[in-house]
Amino acid sequence: MTVTAERLETTAPSASQDGVLLQVEHLVKHFPITRGIILQRTIGAVRAVDDISFFIRRGETFGLVGESGCGKSTTGRTILQLYPPTSGHVYFDGVDLVTLPPNEMRRMRRRMQMIFQDPYASLNPRMTVGEIIAEPLIVHRTARGPAIQERVDELLELVGLNPAFANRYPHEFSGGQRQRIGVARALALNPLFIVCDEPISALDVSIQAQVVNLLEDLQRRFGLTYLFIAHDLSMVRHICNRVGVMYLGVLVELADRDELYSHALHPYTQALLSAVPVADPVVEEKRKRIILEGDVPSPANPPSGCRFRTRCWLADKICAEQVPAWREVAEDHWVACHMV
Amino acid sequence: MAILQQESNPRMLRDLSSSPRVLDVTDLATHFKTSDGTVHAVNGVSFHLDSGETLGIVGESGCGKSVTVMSMLRLIPEPPGQIVRGQAHFLGKDLLQMSPDEIRQVRGAQIAMVFQDPMTSFNPVLTIGRQLTEPLEIHLGMTGKQAETRAAELLSMVGIPNGAERLRDYPHQFSGGMRQRVMIAMALSCTPQILIADEPTTALDVTIQAQIVELVKRLRDEIGMGIIWITHDLGIIAGIAHRVAVMYGGFIIEHAPVKELYANPQHPYTIGLLGSLPRLDQRRERLESIDGLPPVLYEEPKYCPFAARCAYVQDRCRQENPPLMPVAPHHEAACWVDVRTGALRA
């Protein structure tokens, strides 16, 4: 396991950096595959997240991109301890969430919230908007009596909705408005950190911009830190300071936004960037596309060595034999590839 | 509609030299009766398509882009839907006047469709082979054996290896991208004159989307069919379409060759859409958002349906609905205001 040893060394320096709010170390999340009804045997595991390490600085937006099934949403949920990690550590403000006792974890949850992808499924249709937004306040006992109503009004106004809407039900709102309700709920407890899991993917183009601008305004106003999970690389470039690219449960590249988009090193990142259409026919005409062949392999049985090797045009013998080390090749530019 | 006659775009010239008009739609309108009232989904749209060219229809959900082509093919459930007026001439015959038998001969054979969701547009209990050979037997009168050989060829044409073996597989044994390839193979099985692609890549990842777009472009050039590509994604359209029609509130509000549209958008809605897109190749400080929501029209609008959200709005916009008017060579927009000056058009 020389690879693991190398990884340990290389992640150590980042921990000492200033202003880090969230530090993820060797996070692993496997979902067991079982067979049998009474005597359930584990016959394998979906290796949804397989040893990833990164950190997020205070006040920044960290983007996590990749295709469906690459483990980006699982990463977000495992960080928040919504899924118990298989192994690894998540340090939030210096405290390891993985080993935190449940009652302390509950208190910690006020500091971290989540905004979900589907604004239609993430709001309880039987609760009024006011009740939805008040729920975290009641659960965490941070407000009582008339103070709850005041806070709900304040939050609705904050996200650009009329406080008079508090008595309405979610179905009375459009997708963009519902996503604003989700944002208001996430803000109710004054969190430091919000995991935004594809918050705009379900929205129309003209509405996406509204929600993104809202998220940016709120970040500036409250000094929020975001983990922004998305598959839309153009939007990630717009909103994120640093971006991590995931493929089949592992991080393959991580860099500052502009660095990543101008000097992508990992072949997968290059292919991914080249596949994104640009809304300009003149640019499109001149662009060279790297068309990847085939599909993403199953995370239950990932390829040996480098997981991207089955679709990689640079793949060599070493790629099948050894897992490429996660290393820092330039300042704050990390990559896991034998060919870089 | 002489818009295409002296096209300057080199991509178009090739098409124009040998491309007859295959489709001419005029003043198509479709309503839906709902418990809340009659929804005016499509309100008199006109467009045309030449063989070998790709027309992009762009708009947000509910703008009427899918209903337009579904009406054309008479795939609107009636009731609640109703095609209230219009013509859709396909090779000289009006699709809207055809008998059910006649239109069935056209659908799937001469005009084929690829739908958004490759997961739900197959029958899950029939093999891919059964579903691929069906149109060949029905439309082309092939025998079972012939159809099977042809189906295997079609699969290899869309880049699925071991075609003959995979015919025995069921849809769930294919990945999303592969299923969309099979869908395309099925659509092309009878060599249609027109392929209608309704958000065919929306459910796919970008790397798979790039594969599908390349595939369709290659097949278009090989077969020489006309394509109507419906999408909300202005990025894809930039790469595949020759001409673009932007829809809003059941109207085509702007129509231009692709480069002209992106370089010189004339309708405030198109300008807003382009401004609200983040770009991969450049950074914007802030996205311009279009405030408000798209309308649901319960009656024929008496004024511009975009007026409530428009940054350039003038009094006339709230009194009269603008028709499509020429604003530049080969370029039409439905707006009273000249966005270059902010004043009303003369």
Shape label of chain B? globular
Secondary-structure element pattern of chain B, one letter each: HEEEHEEHEHHHHEHEHEEHHEEEE
* Largest beta sheet: strand ordering of chain A: 6-7-8-3-9-10-12-11
State the secondary-structure class of chain A: alpha/beta
Q: Your description of this structure?
A:
- The complex is a heterodimer of chains A (340) and B (346).
- Chain A is built from twelve helices and twelve strands.
- Chain A has 340 residues and is of the alpha/beta class.
- In chain A, strands 6-7-8-3-9-10-12-11 form an eight-stranded mixed beta sheet, sandwiched between helices.
- In chain A, helix 5 packs across helix 6 and helix 6 runs parallel beside helix 7.
- In chain B, strands 6-7-8-3-9-10-12-11 form an eight-stranded mixed beta sheet, sandwiched between helices. Chain B has a four-stranded antiparallel beta sheet with strand order 2-1-4-5.
- Chain B is globular and about 65 Å long.
- The N terminus of chain B is likely disordered.
- Chain B is of the alpha/beta class.
- Chains A and B meet through helix 7, helix 8, helix 10 and helix 11 of A and helix 8, helix 9, helix 10 and helix 11 of B.
Question: What are the key terms here?
Answer:
heterodimer, A: 340 residues, alpha/beta, 8-stranded mixed sheet, 12 helices, globular, disordered N terminus, B: 346 residues, 4-stranded antiparallel sheet, 14 strands
